[in-house]
Amino acid sequence: MKISVIGTGYVGLVTGTCLAETGNEVVCVDIDKAKVEKMRNGVVPIYEPHLDVLFERNIKANRLRFTTSLEEGLEHGEIIFLALPTPEDEDGSADLSYVLNVSEEIGIKIKNYKVIVDKSTVPVGTSEKVHSVIAKNASCDFDVVSNPEFLREGFAVDDFLKPERIIIGSSSEKATELMKRLYSPFVRSGNPIIVMDEKSAELTKYAANAFLATKITFMNEIANYCEKVGADVDMVRAGIGTDSRIGKRFLFPGIGYGGSCFPKDVKALQKAGKNVNYDFKILNSVIEINSAQKTVLLPKIDNYFKNDLKGKTIAIWGLAFKPETDDIREAPSIDIMEALLQKGTKLQVFDPEAMPNIKKRFGDKLNYSQSMYAALEGADALVICTEWSIFRTPDYGKLKELLKNPVVFDGRNLYNVNDMETEGFTYVSVGRKPVN
Ligand code: NAD
User: Fold this and answer.
1) Is 261 labeled as catalytic in the residue annotation?
2) CA torsion sign, 156 to 162 to 165 to 167?
3) Could you report the predicted ipTM of this complex, rounded to two decimals?
């Protein structure tokens, strides 16, 4: 099939590449000239495991190409995916300007039947809006489908190739059949393609993200309470995770959720509720708790240094909002580092992939280290913000040798508390006994 994808970020580029991998001819359109130039030169502009292999293979096979021309994209595709940003607006709602501006252009430029597929995360009613914006100018027939994306950064290729479900929100039989045909190679193992109305499809995505953010936040509250009463959140997690109604996943406490989706999507659903006089009380709490959780280690760090952090050097391991990505949007590391800088500390930071993005934001306010161990040299303490695998089994001897004091503040509970005690560390994590 002939497919076009408008917007080649984490979602668009993965969508385009994976659709090319199943034999479709894909044209990816992006407004960012430098990005398109990079991709034309065979460079993947983001870090996403396994994407490079598929990217290269499909470019070579002439199934995947890149352009800055929307016209070219619209001429090529019978199915046009919108994978455009829907960032948080000033009032917390989703900013639909990218989606609606491109839709307006689509209305002016399409010359024959197209299925316009919204893959961006958008509030209930956006399909209708997109439809009417296109209809204003369109001289041909078209359908609008809502097809929210559930891929996770860091696992995006796998998630796209083997989705647990595909959601198609459509009231057009013709468009639904085309979408089913397009996705059939991805659900051969029997995972469902669930067809529903557009509004329910749009809400499905927000409900999923809000539920997951709530699950994490609930565990963070349990962890905070564990600290007050001397219980161990690891034990509680193991205990409740075995209940199949609860499940083992997404129960790991830490310094809060971040990223380009959960924070903005939870706020957008909260705001969408307000617009129809519905107060999402649970989401109000999730937002408030998560915001506080991001800096939950700070009082503990302050306490260790007797409120005298000025002039101290802190090593930071992990800057991305989660492992296996270079994405730093809303990363808890940012909140912690900003607070530590305010207190006059010097920061030596390391992340396997996210340093260039952090550098763009912090410039020369941070010292960027070449390796995880280099970040420790002469530091007064180590703070861990992201659970990259390489941090999981460090050389404890080296840690003690390089740090001025053997002190670790672990925002992701990477290490066994008893091991750290035996090794002679001061070790502070989330929801577990501190080791002094
Ligand atoms: P992104 O910011 O990584 O990428 C967006 C891309 O769109 C950029 O390359 C940008 O240059 C391009 N763009 C902007 N305006 C354009 C225009 N007028 N024409 C062509 N290209 C244009 O965003 P993303 O993370 O891929 O997210 C896209 C959407 O998917 C959002 O609604 C997001 O909420 C949703 N989503 C994201 C994820 C994720 O893990 N990142 C997962 C599921 C859903």
Assistant:
1) yes
2) positive
3) 0.99
Domain match, 9 and 39 both: yes
Q: Are residues 327 and 412 in the same domain?
A: yes
Banded model confidence at residue 178, pLDDT cuts 50, 70, 90: very high
Query: At 273, which amino acid appears?
Result: G
Does 419 show up as a binding residue in the annotation? no
Contact by Cβ (8 Å): 179, 168:
yes
The one-letter amino acid at 149:
E
Which one of the listed residues 18, 226, 261, 385 is annotated catalytic?
Answer: 261
What global pTM score does this model have? Answer: 0.95
Range of the domain at 421: 298-428
CA nearest 411: which of 285, 261, 258, 309?
A: 258
Instruction: Report the residue count for the chain.
Output: 436
The CA angle 360-366-369, to the nearest 5 degrees, is 95
Across the strands, what pairs with 384? 317, 410
58: left (phi over 0), alpha (psi -120 to 50) or beta: alpha
Cα torsion for 199, 202, 205, 208, to the nearest 10°? -20
374-417 pLDDT tens trace:
999 999 999 999 999 999 999 999 999 999 999 999 999 999 99
For residues 409-432, one letter each, b for 16 or more C-beta atoms within 10 angstroms of the residue's C-beta and e for the rest, the string is: bbbbbbbebeebeebebbbbbbbb
Q: Which structure tokens are listed for 92?
A: 């917390």
* Segments of 175-302 assigned E as strands: 193-196
Q: Are both 313 and 271 inside the same structural domain?
A: no
Any ligand 1 atom below 6 A from CB of 102? yes
Per-residue pLDDT of 193-202, as tens digits, reads 999 999 999 9
Is there an atom of ligand 1 within 6 Å of 8 CB?
yes
Residue with tokens 């989660």: 322
Q: pLDDT (tens digit, 9 = 90+) per residue, 289-305?
A: 999 999 999 999 999 99
Q: Do residue 125 and residue 236 come from a single domain? A: no
Say how many C-beta atoms besides its own lie within 10 A of residue 107's C-beta: 21
SS3 category, 168: strand
Atom in ligand 1 nearest the alpha carbon of residue 94:
32
pLDDT tens figures, 48-68: 999 999 999 999 999 999 999
CA distance 66 to 29: 6
- Mean pLDDT of the 218-239 span: 98
Any atom of ligand 1 within 6 Å of the Cβ of 326? no
Residue 250 counted as an annotated binding residue: yes
* Same-domain status, 125 and 266: no
